[in-house]
């Protein structure tokens, strides 16, 4: 998914004006995917090893301005409840322990 994103966005720089709408859509799709990944961990379908890798990647992406901006824009409108909880708990909890 992130392969389609410009390198500038992936390294935390701002996107070019003509790319912003396309990038916003890609980031939204990434956020949706991460919410699903967190759900799968919460349901015990993902190993601890895989979860650590996914979690660190999610956290790293959300620290980038473009990802953080889109997340803050859509989080209250899109039902990314698993992702929101993980962010609110500063990535310190394991979703497998939530239920």
Question: What would you say this structure looks like, in words?
Answer:
The mean pLDDT is 90. The protein is 61% helix and 0% strand. It contains five helices and no strands. The chain is an all-alpha fold. It has one domain. It is elongated.
Indicate the proportion of strand residues: under 5%
Q: What average pLDDT do the residues reach?
A: 90
Secondary structure: number of strands: 0
Count helical runs. Answer: 5
Helix-strand string: HHHHH
Oligomer: single chain
Low-confidence stretches: none
* Whole-number count of domains: 1
Offer a concise description of the structure.
The protein is mostly helical. 61% of the residues lie in helices and 0% in strands. α2 runs antiparallel to α3, α2 crosses α4 and α2 crosses α5.
Salient structural properties:
99 residues, mainly alpha, 5 helices, 61% helix, elongated
Write the layout of secondary structure elements.
Layout: H1 7-10, H2 20-42, H3 48-62, H4 65-74, H5 81-88
